[in-house]
Amino acid sequence: MAIKEYFELVFSDYTLRTITLGTAILGAVCGMLGSFAVLRKQSLLGDAISHAALPGIAIAFLITGAKDSNTLLLGALVSGLIGAFWIRGIITKTHLKSDTALGLILSIFFGFGMLLLTFIQKQPNANQAGLDKYLFGQAATLVESDVWLMAIVTGVCLIVLLLFWKEFKLLLFDADYTKTLGFNIKFIDTLITFFIVLAIVLGLQTVGVVLMSAMLLAPAAAARQWTNSLAVMMFLAAVFGAFSGVVGTAISTSQNNLPTGPIIVLVASCFVFISFIFSPSRGLLFKQIRFLKNRRDLQLHKTLTFMYDIAKTHENIEHPHTIKILNNFHGFTRKTLHKLVEKNYVTIKGNMWSLTKEGYQSASNLYNQIFNNE
Amino acid sequence: MKEKKIAVKVDDLTVAYNYKPVLWDIDLEVPEGVLMAIVGPNGAGKSTLIKSILGILKPIAGSVSIYGKPYKEQRNLVAYVPQKGSVDWDFPTTALDVVMMGTYGSLGWIKRPRQKEKKKALEALEKVGMLPFKGRQISQLSGGQQQRIFLARALVQNASIYFMDEPFQGVDATTEIAIINILKELRKTGKTVIVVHHDLQTVPEYFDWVTFLNVKKIATGPVKDIFNDDNLTKTYGINYKVSVQE
Questions:
Q1: What backbone phi and psi angles, to 5 degrees, belong to B158?
Q2: Residues of A in contact with B137 (CB under 8 A)
Q3: How far apart, in whole angstroms, are the C-alpha atoms of residue A369 and residue A363?
């Protein structure tokens, strides 16, 4: 199936539509909440929480014996929350740094989860197959009720975001100050963490434990490159996330059985890559271009002021001088000389140069500027 | 001179991060309307003292009162300027936005800032000479400008007592003068200003009240009475000589 065919089918095929909607909503909500994680420098929190959710899935299966995805997600939610609050506890109660706490919780919970999964697989119960889809996710298993759940959570998340926008922003920027203004920062913090955990748990079925953190971080990191406004950043992150979801699903269904989760993550990474290079204000490309342009301008200015120094000793400023004198001078290149001719600041006859009136004027302005600044 | 009201009163305050106490049994009274420096060596607990007064840190023992009542009831009388380095200046927001944050406390939960709050923020920006930069992304401001933005944010709170944590750190001479002039202006209107300060040379010039701190309180009082070599030596441990101009 070609990608074009896919986009025709999205509107008619029920399963395809469900999956596409699901991944789009998931991408949007993860992008939004991921912005919080990125700005709080807790990028790895998502990774730790998603790994911490694994034993919850296994335990929920062991207790109920059923494979109902809502039950399993509830288990994931509980153990994800426990993981998140243990991390916070470790950071505030001990002297361990946050990266240590995150790494500890991630590996302990994941190790325990894998242990339980192996245990389950060895049981004669025929139901067991399929739990390991939570490791790497399987978008194809999404059904309408899953998408509804995602939509409702996203809606609630949006409402909370709008209500507490001011408080969230304040806490993200300056937590101590937030406290002195009389806001309960524990409440705000818990609210943010709760929604991040919720978004991660919703994504486990689609993207899986291992890659879930990329869903949070990639759209947010890409969005940060394009804007200096928090609101725009979150909006862009949501758009990038949703777009990654749709394009990822399209590619994976049109190419035979490519796994959806990894493809979505790769598409999101493309956004990051493009943003890091091509963003006008923060991108590497334009930074380098600006750097080179500034260098050239300065070289030009330096050569021009040097010429001015020589020219002003003569009564006639347009008196010609040999190009050789410039050779000892650092900053002079053939290219700058040509640039100066182009700008009509200098004329060249043979291997003699002379300043034009225009060049003299502009050089004396420059000279005064530099002199006054000192 | 008539008896002044006590703006900030600290009783038996003890704070520890781990086993080692950072502040030990601090008693402190700051009269209304003074411009006070808190001086002491690194690790003396200067920032900790401010943070404990403001309830950011929980003390092991002791109490703080603002105009005779617990801090929690008097929050709206107090404004805080944290150390510049305590926040991420690459945060996606503008200068005006940061100053607007000063109005959030009086707004309370959920309510959004409106035209009135924006007007207050613009006035504060004007006062610190940063109005032309109101739309600037905060990472594109110089260190001195960032400090002025923080000051403006506190000014918006229109408090009676201002706590500032090293407002002169990493700022150029022009900004330092601009800031100290604003602080002196605040004192003129009867506000109390408490500043963690590092540069001992400028204490007699800038401040009229001083507290020497090194885990314990060494001395507190008018600069002209207690800012002397004796107290400096007690605080800094070495034989400190600073000429005090009269």
A1: 45, 55
A2: 228
A3: 10
Is A233 in CB contact (< 8 Å) with chain B?
Answer: yes
Hey, what's the torsion of the CAs at A352, A356, A361, A363, to 10 degrees? -30
Contact A198, A152 (CB under 8 A): no
Nearest to B105 among A181, A229, A233 (CB): A181
CA A298 to CA B85: how far, in whole Å?
33
ipTM of this complex prediction, to 2 decimal places: 0.92
Contact B175, B148 (CB under 8 A): yes
Q: Does A165 lie at the interface with B, CB-CB under 8 angstroms?
A: yes
Lowest mean pLDDT among A83-97, A200-214, B52-66, B229-243: B229-243
Q: How far is CA B213 from CA A190, A338, B218, in A?
A: 37, 65, 6
What is the distance between the alpha carbons of residues A35 and A40, in angstroms, rounded to a whole number? 8
Place of tokens 């009475």: B225
Per-residue confidence band for B240, with pLDDT thresholds at 50, 70 and 90: low
CB contact residues (below 8 A), chain B span 17-46, against chain A: 18
pLDDT at A129: 59
Domain annotation for chain A: domains and CATH numbers: 3-282 (1.10.3470.10), 289-373 (1.10.10.10)
**What pLDDT sits at residue B1?**
47
As given in the structure block, the two tokens for residue A64 are 């109920």
Strands B35-39 and B61-66, bridge-based pairing: unpaired
B237 versus A261: the higher-pLDDT residue is A261
B54/A179 CB distance under 8 A: yes
CB count within 10 Å of CB A70 equals 12
More confident call, A258 vs B46: B46
Which pTM value belongs to this model?
A: 0.87
Helix (H, G, I), strand (E, B) or coil at A239: helix
Low-confidence residues in chain A, pLDDT < 50: 374
Q: What are phi and psi of B132, to 5 degrees?
A: -65, -15
Cβ-in-10-Å burial (0-12, 13-18, 19+) of B200 comes to: middle
DSSP, res B159:
-
Task: Concatenate the DSSP letters of all residues of A162-219 into one string.
Answer: HHTHHHHHHHHH-HHHHHHTT--HHHHHHHHHHHHHHHHHHHHTTT-TTTHHHHHHHH
> Averaged over B60-69, what is the pLDDT?
92
Phi first, then psi: give them for residue B113, nearest 5 degrees. Answer: -65, 145
In the beta sheet, which residues pair with residue B164? B81, B195
The Cα B205–Cα B210 span in angstroms is 12
Q: Kindly list the residues from chain A whose CB atom is less than 8 angstroms away from the CB atom of residue B93.
A: 169, 173, 228-230
State whether residue B93 sits within 8 Å of chain A by CB.
yes
Which residue blocks in chain A are alpha helix, DSSP H?
3-12, 14-39, 43-52, 54-64, 69-93, 98-121, 133-136, 144-163, 165-173, 175-180, 185-204, 212-224, 230-254, 260-278, 284-311, 324-327, 334-342, 357-373
